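Take a record.
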Amino acid sequence: MSEPLVRLDEAQVAYRGRLALGPLSLDLSPGALTAVVGPSGGGKSTTLRLLAGLEAPSAGRAVRRLARGETAVVFQAPTLAPWASAEANVALPLELAGMGRTEARTRARAALARVGLAGAERLRPAQLSGGMAMRASLARALITAPKLLLLDEPFAALDEITRRALADDVLRLWAETRPAVVFVTHNVEEAVYMAERVVVLTRGPGRIAATFHTPGPLPRPPGFRADAAFRQTVEQVSAALESAVRESAA
C-alpha cells in the first residue's frame, strides 16, 4: 500500500489563542478523491491550507511527501491576472519554473483545449464567463501535472448547469493523470458525486464527525445522480452533517 502524500496527525490550528480546527487526523493517498463538507466556520479552508503546506499546525503534525510544484490549489474566485490572456495565465506556472515562453505557451494552449477552451486563448478574464474562467483556473492548476489538487469551493458562484458540467470535467481530467484530489464544498450532493470518500466536519473547532465511502464508478456514468445508492448516500451524509451541527451547537 502506498504511503500517504499528506498525513494530518491530531493537527490543531489556533488563532490568537482560540482553537479553530482540530484535533483532526486525515490521510491522503495517491490518486484518491476526497470531499470535505461542513458548516461555515468549521475549518474546511483551514484544513485545505494545512494539506497545501500553506499553514503549519499549532499542535499535532502535518507531514507532506510532496516536492515543490507538486501541489496545486484552485480557489472559489478564479484568481486570474486581469491584464493577461487565458493562454498567458495558464502558462505562468511553467514560465515561473524556468520553462521557455514558446514551450510554455504551447503547453498552455493544449491545457486550455483539454478543459474545453480551445479558441479562447487570447481572451482576457473579463471576457470569460464564470464557467470559462474556472476552466482556465483548472487548466493552470493541472498544467504542472500536480500529485495533489486542492479545490476550495470552486463552483460556489456558478449556476447549477455549469456546476454539473464542471464536476464531470474535473472527474474526466482526474482520470487522465490521477492526482489526489480534495474538494471542499457546502453542497452535499456535489461532494458525493465528486469523491470516493466524504469527510464531514463539525462546527469550529472543526473535527471529523463522520466519514462515508461513496458507491459507484469514477468518473460517474450518465444518469448517476438518479441512482438509488447515490441518493441514499446523499441522505446519509446530509443527516450526519445536520447531526454534527446540532451536537456542536449544544
Observations:
- The two ends are 40 Å apart (CA to CA).
